[in-house]
């Protein structure tokens, strides 16, 4: 692929920019016509027209926030864009894509969600570190590499999982045969003796769609907010600030079998 | 590409090979490029470090004072030379007597007919953590600028002013006025800021290059 001078770059203006569509694989254009969008903080890179970005705590937006925003504890990471014009969104040069939901639900890793229309309701998922969108509307998500859609039953690598729609059964799956016993535990802890790094997967069954990114590099985790510390609430009362995996670093294979647990510590 | 004739004799031809490698075909002339960015060449090439970006003693002192430092080399010869820098996306800009404003860290190479210099940017530079000065490129010819992810080129005209996040801004070209907008309110200090507290507004006539990524800057956090 060689580009010769003369062809030049494509120069966009508000007329040629797409409406609620990708400008290129890494940049998404949203058109606002007196409407509103929820954005993750700091993901706007440029806009034409007149727009206002308000933190979720803004009084005028209370009604909107009440109807479409249900993760109060991570509200400070979100802003509402309102006004009219065209706005470009991007996230650290990751691939961005928009998805349409129609009377549906989709659960997505919190760091991957960039923006959504207020016709969707955002809720914290029961699964720590994930958010669920319910309703009809468009949302924009970032991923490291293009997104692949898969049908369950499927087992996926935890680092490649972006989210899932409609399937209610995400669960852990371990290759137990390889990880049991003291030696297995040591192997899982240290990687000595040949851990493949794939002993632990997420398993999905039932009808639905699973979204995967085409790399195993996680996007930095966005805090999804703590959940109330109540009995029966998964993740409730956990140490603050680690709702899931440490961002970016690959996990030790098989956290199930760490040594402390084996020795009853 | 309408290269003005009567300007120096041979003019190096810039072209992209893929989106992350710049190939320059040279016939005895010289181009300036970021120090150490050569990845391959064929033919005969000579590489010479340019102290102070080839802007003379005055330019060198200016750059030292303004902190807009840039280490350039001059590449002269016959053949093709390939440049790349840490797998950044490369964008070609052609200049016909107009001026390109670019961050020195985003400038990869400039053709022989271009001069580089420094200019004051004011608050914009401060808000994106790049200092108060920026690099200018002017003359006739081509320049290659780098971005994190392919740059989006946005036209600014009198009826369409543009507002840009300082962290995503990489360069602009043409007759543009820039003004600095601050959305800092009492809410920012309560931790409920809009996340876009600092913005640069461009008015006039020209184009602005933005990258699909934001540098770490204080503007991204408030």
UniProtKB/TrEMBL annotation, chain A:
Gene3D superfamilies: Mitochondrial biogenesis AIM24. Residues 233-247 have a biased composition (Gly residues). Residues 226-257 are annotated as: Disordered. Pfam families: AIM24. InterPro entries: AIM24, AIM24_sf, Trp_RNA-bd_attenuator-like_dom. This is Ser or Arg-related nuclear matrix protein. It comes from Streptomyces aurantiacus.
């Amino acid at each position: 692929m060689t580009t010769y001078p003369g062809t030049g770059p494509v120069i966009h203006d508000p007329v040629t920019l797409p409406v609620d569509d990708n400008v290129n694989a890494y940049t998404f254009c949203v058109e606002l016509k007196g409407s509103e969008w929820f954005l993750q903080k700091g993901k706007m890179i440029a806009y034409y027209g007149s727009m206002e970005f308000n933190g979720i705590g803004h009084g005028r937006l209370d009604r909107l926030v009440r109807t479409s925003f249900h993760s109060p504890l991570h509200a400070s990471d979100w802003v509402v864009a309102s006004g009219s014009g065209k706005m470009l969104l991007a996230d650290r040069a990751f691939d961005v894509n928009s998805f349409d939901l129609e009377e549906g639900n989709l659960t997505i890793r919190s760091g991957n969600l960039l923006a959504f229309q207020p016709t969707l309701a955002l809720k914290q998922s029961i699964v720590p570190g994930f958010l669920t969108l319910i309703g009809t509307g468009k949302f924009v998500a970032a991923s490291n590499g293009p997104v692949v859609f898969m049908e369950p039953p499927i087992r996926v690598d935890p680092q490649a999982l972006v989210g899932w729609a409609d399937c209610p059964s995400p669960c852990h799956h371990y290759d137990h045969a390889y990880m049991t016993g003291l030696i297995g535990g040591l192997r899982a802890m240290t990687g000595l003796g040949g851990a493949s790094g794939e002993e632990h997967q997420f398993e999905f069954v039932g009808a639905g769609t699973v979204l995967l990114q085409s790399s195993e590099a996680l996007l930095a985790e966005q805090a999804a907010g703590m959940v109330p510390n109540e009995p029966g609430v998964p993740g409730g009362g956990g140490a603050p600030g680690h709702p899931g995996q440490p961002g970016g670093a690959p996990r030790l294979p098989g956290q199930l079998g760490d040594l402390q647990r084996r020795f009853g510590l | 590409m309408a290269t003005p004739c009567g300007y120096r004799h041979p003019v190096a031809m810039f072209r992209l090979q893929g989106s992350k490698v710049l190939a320059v075909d040279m016939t005895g002339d010289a181009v300036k490029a970021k120090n150490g960015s050569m990845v391959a060449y064929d033919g005969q090439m000579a590489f010479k470090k340019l102290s102070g970006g080839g802007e003379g003693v005055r330019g060198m002192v200016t750059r030292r004072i303004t902190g807009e430092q840039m280490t350039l080399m001059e590449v002269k010869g016959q053949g093709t030379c390939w440049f790349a820098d840490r797998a950044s996306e490369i964008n070609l800009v052609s200049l016909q007597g107009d001026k390109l404003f670019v961050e020195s860290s985003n400038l990869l190479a400039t053709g022989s007919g271009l001069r580089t210099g420094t200019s004051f940017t004011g608050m914009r530079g401060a808000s994106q953590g790049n200092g108060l000065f920026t690099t200018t490129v002017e003359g006739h010819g081509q320049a290659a600028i780098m971005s994190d992810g392919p740059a989006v080129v946005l036209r600014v005209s009198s009826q369409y002013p543009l507002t840009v996040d300082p962290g995503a801004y990489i360069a602009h070209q043409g007759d543009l006025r820039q003004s600095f907008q601050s959305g800092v309110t009492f809410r920012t200090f309560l931790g409920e800021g809009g996340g876009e507290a600092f913005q640069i507004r461009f008015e006039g006539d020209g184009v602005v290059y933005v990258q699909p990524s934001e540098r770490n800057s204080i503007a991204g956090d408030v």
